[in-house]
Design goal:
By secondary structure, this protein is an alpha/beta fold. 42% of the residues lie in helices and 25% in strands. The strands form two sheets. The chain has a nine-stranded mixed beta sheet with strand order 6-5-4-7-8-9-10-11-12. It has a three-stranded mixed beta sheet with strand order 1-3-2. α3 packs across α4.
Length: 281
């Protein structure tokens, strides 16, 4: 065989090897069809799942935020008087007719609004699903009336909880505290004067421990020097000075028993230790 024939044979064999390699590298046609449909099926399944998730999400969102199931239908206020309950409902700014969604209501925001009411000492707001809000509050109880240009009901913590006028029936229900600068009184805030707290302490302790003497108490006056003088009905003065009046109550009770009646007394002075100075009318 000549050289030319050998070269032609070599080229022919090389082409045959390349064809064999190409044939081995390609899958058979049925396999390729099967793979195509399998891939298409996976894509369709993924699209179906995604569509189902979107539809479910929209359905859940509509149920939670658009349907009437979680719509606010009831607002309950517990632990306070009926009149204050009305004021609390107004302060909460929750309108049942507005079709509010319970899930979007902030209990902390409602709590802050209600807590700003001067008469509220403590408040807790809870949701009761699916459609109710419950406000539990503790009402401040008045113990005295501070008379300073205007009249204010104050509680045991010296918080000014309400403003009164002369026609209000509460003006005769509690002892008065006088001598407090009007500039120190702000509705809903405690009166930051030690003499006021000492006066309230006197009133509360008399009411609890000596009801008869409490009924005679008309006024507790605070002087410019923060000294305290109690006035009984009929004009009798009980001078306590700067000493906390509660510390002098045992001595006052003993003195009252000894005198039998205080109506003929002009004043009694407890400012000098264990000595009691008094003057009759």
């Amino acid at each position: 065989m000549g050289a030319r024939s050998k070269r032609n044979m070599t080229k022919y064999l090389s082409k045959q090897k390349i064809k064999v390699r190409r044939t081995r590298g390609r899958r058979p046609f049925p396999d390729r069809v099967r793979q195509f449909f399998l891939t298409a099926a996976k894509v369709c399944l993924a699209c179906c799942l995604l569509t189902a998730v979107i539809i479910s999400a929209k359905t859940i969102h509509h149920f939670l935020f658009k349907s009437t199931y979680f719509q606010l239908n009831n607002l309950f206020v517990k632990g306070v008087s009926p009149q204050l309950a009305k004021e609390i409902k107004a302060a909460s700014d929750l309108d049942i007719d507005s079709r509010l969604n319970l899930l979007t209501i902030s209990t902390e925001r409602i709590r802050r609004r209600v807590a700003s009411h001067p008469k509220i000492k403590y408040v807790r707001v809870v949701k009761k699903y699916p459609s109710s809000v419950i406000i539990r509050a503790l009402e401040r109880e008045p113990v005295a009336i501070v008379n300073s240009q205007r009249m204010y009901l104050v509680d045991i913590e010296a918080v000014a909880i309400d403003m009164l006028d002369q026609k209000n029936q509460s003006t005769g229900a509690f002892p008065f505290i006088t001598g407090v600068p009007a500039s120190r009184i702000q509705l809903g805030q405690p009166i930051d004067l030690d003499a006021v707290l000492r006066s309230i302490d006197l009133i509360v302790n008399l009411q609890a421990k000596n009801p008869n003497l409490y009924k005679q108490l008309a006024e507790v006056h605070i002087t410019d020097k923060n000294e305290i003088t109690a006035y009984l009905k009929g004009g009798v003065e009980i001078r306590f000075g700067n000493t906390p009046p509660v510390e002098k109550l045992p001595a006052l009770e003993t003195f009252a028993k000894k005198m039998r009646t205080l109506k003929k007394l002009h004043y009694a002075d407890f400012r000098f230790g264990n000595q009691i100075y008094y003057v009759m009318k």
